[in-house]
Amino acid sequence: MTLGAPARGEGLAMIRWRLAFAAAAAFGVVASAATWGVAGEAPPRSSAVELGTNGPPLKPTVGGLAAICDVNGSDPQSWCAAYLLGALEAMQAFGAGGHKAGTCGVNYTAERLAPIFVAWSKRNPDFVGFPMMAGVNLAFREAWPCH
């Protein structure tokens, strides 16, 4: 079935709706092409900051994350802070649900997270090769345990 051909038993209202939808879609394509044609250039790229770890290349291990977080220090806008904030929020959800893998009684600022994780990783060198999230979980459960 095409957009213009009515299906058997299709009412006039449905046919009008399908034609209006097709016209709106066509208008959107034409308007977009005309806008960028007049501008004479491709659509602009995002002005977001270039993605990266703000440190050494990422090795997805406790040691790799600790190296990045050590370089980032307490910068709340770093890649490290974003990763740790996301992990901590997920762990808080587990803790709020009573799961032992969560964190409880969390009182933090983004600036405190990297130093907590880096200090934990230095005290626990046996975990250097473990996955990043495993180390983050252990470090933050130590800092904010659920009893």
Account of the 3D structure:
This protein is an all-alpha fold and 147 residues long. The protein folds into two domains: 1-44; 62-143. The chain is built from five helices and no strands. The chain has helices spanning 12-39, 62-72, 79-96, 110-123, 132-143. The longest helix is centred in the N-terminal third of the chain and has 28 residues, at 12-39. The model is unreliable at 23-36 (pLDDT under 50).
Quick rundown:
This protein is mainly α and 147 residues long.
List the helices and strands and how they pair.
Elements: H1 12-39, H2 62-72, H3 79-96, H4 110-123, H5 132-143
Helix pairs in contact: 2-4, 2-5, 3-4, 3-5, 4-5
Q: How many helical stretches?
A: 5
Overall 3D form:
globular
Number of DSSP E strands: 0
Unreliable parts: 23-36
The biggest beta sheet reads:
none
C-alpha Rg (nearest Å): 26 Å
Question: What labels describe this entry?
Answer:
147 residues; mainly alpha; 2 domains; 0% strand; globular
